[in-house]
Amino acid sequence: MSLTTLPIEHEYQPGDAQAAEGIPFQFLTGADIDVVHIDAATGAVSALLPDDDYVIAGDGPAGTATITATADWPLADSFLVRRRTPIKQDAAINAHQALPSRDVARQLDRVAMVVQEDRADLADARNRSWLVPRGETGGVLPSVADRAGKFRAWDVEGNEYASNGGGADDALREDLAETGDALNAYQPGGAGAVQTSLRARLQRDVWVEDYFAGLSPGDDYQPAFDRAMDVARARGRSKVRMETMIDTASTIALRSGMSIEGDGTHYRWDNDLEANVYEGAWIRNDNAAGGPVLRYGSMQDSRLRDVGIFCGEEANTVAISIGSDNSPSTQSLYFEKFIVVGAALAVRWGDQNAATPLEQCDAITFRDFSFHSCVDGFRLDANNVADTSLIERGRLYQMQGLGFDLRNCGILRISECQAGLLYAESRMFKIGGLAPDQLIIQLCQSEGLGGKMFEINGNNDQGATHLIGCVINQPVECNGIVRVTSTGCYINTTIDLDGYGRWSSTNDVWDGPLGQPQVTVANGAQFDAVTQRDANGQNGVWLPRGMKVKQANLTAGGYEYLGAMRAGIYGETFSVGAGYYYPGFRVLPTVDNGFAYNVTVAAGVTGAEPAWPTGIGDTVVSGGVAFQCIGASAIVKGVGGIQA
Hints:
about 650 residues, mainly beta, eleven-stranded parallel β-sheet
C-alpha cells in the first residue's frame, strides 16, 4: 500500500440512525483506532469500546473503512475517531535473500503514520502551550510542593515564580501583597510614571475587610477597625477604607489624624428598618448600652466619608460622639456624604453632663448627609462648643424629636438643611443656653404632620440667632432673653414672643392667612419689622405691632412706610360713594373704634358712613354694600417723611 491520506482523526455525530460513517484516513488494523464520546451538554469525554459501542468494517489500508455506532446517541453528541499506530518493526530482512518488498512497504507506511500522528500531537501541544519568544528558553516549573495551591507568576527577571498565599480569587489581594518586591507588576503609565510592586501599590490603601481574621458572623468586628488603623499608622497612612456592611457591638475610637472612608453607601426603604436593602459601606451597631458607634475624643484632622451607620432604633444608641477634655482640643473634623439610620441620637457634640465636660470641639464640618428615622439629630451641649463650625446640606427624614438641639453653642452656621417632623413635640431647631455667640441659620425649611420649626429659649442676648432666606412653614416660639433677626425669609406661620425676646425682621415675606395674627407679643417682648411689600397689597393682612410696610407711589410730603402702632387687621379707610369694594375687602372706620370690617355684599356704591357695630359677627349696610365686624384693627402711622 502507499499512504495517500493526511488526516489522522475524524469527528462525526452518530445520532440515532446507526448508519455507517466513512473513515477518511488509512490505518493498518482496527486495533490502531481509538474512539471517544464527547457529551455536547457538558463537554465530558469518555472512551468507547470496539464491538460494544461501535464496529469498524471495510479496508483500513485502502482508506475505505467505516465505523458504525451500535446504539442510539443524542443528536448533538459526537464520536472522535483517531488513529494511534503502534511503533514497532516487524519486517524480517535476511542476508542473501530476496528483499520482502511487501513487508518493507508496510513498515514504511507504519513509519509515515507514526510521523503524521506525532506531528499532529506536536502541533496540538504548540497551540495549547505558553511559548517564549524566539531566542529565549523557558524557565523551570516549581516543584509540586512549592506550587501546590498557588498561582503562576514571574519575578523581575521573567522566571517562573510560585506566589505565596492561598491562590483563590477572593484572596488575590493577600496573595499579591505577600510576593514582596519579587513581583514588580504595577505600571501607572503616562509621562513620569514610576513602576512599582503590587505589594507597594496595594499597601497605599488599608481596608478594614482585610483584618477579619479570627472573626465569624455574629461577632463584634470592632477589632478589625483597630487592626486596620494600627497598620495604616505603621505605613504612614491617614485613612482606612471599607466597602461592605460590618457589624460592631462596641465603640470604634478614632485616632487623631485617622479617617474612615467608605466605598459609597445607599439604601432602599422597604417599610421596615431591618428589611431595608443596605448597599455599600455600612457600620451596623445596635448597642443598647448607649455607647457611641464612632467616638472622636481629643483629636484632630479626621474625616468620615461615604459611610452609613445603622443603629436599629435601639433606645440609647448614639451614632457619632464628639468630645474633648481640652488636652488637646478636638477640631478640624470633616463628615461628608454619610447616612445615619435608626439612632436615638445621631450626633452628640460635647456633653455637659460628663464628669469632665466635653467641650472645645471646634472647626468641625458636616456636609451632604442624611438622618433617617432618628429620635434626635444633633445635640450640641458644652460651653461655646462648635466655634467656627459648619453644618450644611443635611436631610433629616422622619424626625421624631429634635433635629438640632443647640443647648450651648459657639459661632455656628447651619445652611441648606431640611427636616420632616413627625409629632407635635418635634422641633427642627431647639435653641437655648447662655451662649453669647452668633448662630446663623440660612436656607433651611421644615415640614411635617406636627411640631415647630424653632423653639428658642435663652438668658443672654449678647449673641443672636440670624435667620436668612429660610422658609418658615411651622410655628416659632421664643421665650426669655433672646435676640432674633430674620432677613429675606418666607413666613406663613405664627411667631410667639414671650419674655424679653426681641425679633427684628427685614425684607421678609409675611404670608399668613388674612385677618389672622402671625406674631403675638407678651411680657416685654419686642417685634420690629420692615417689609418691602407694597402697602396697597396689605389689605386684610394682620399687621404685628412694629411692622413697617413700604408705601406705593411715593410723593413729596408723603411717607416711605406705614408703621403699625397697634397690632391688628390692616384695611382701607371707609369712603362715601365707593364703588370698588368687593366681597373680602377690608375697611376701617374714618374714626378709629378699634375694629376692622369685611365686605360681605357689594351690590352698588356706598352711602353715608354707617354707625359701626363692635360685636364680632355683627353687620351693617351702607348703600349697596354690607359690612361685618371681624376683629381688632391696626393703627398705622406714617414713618419716614419724604421731602420735596
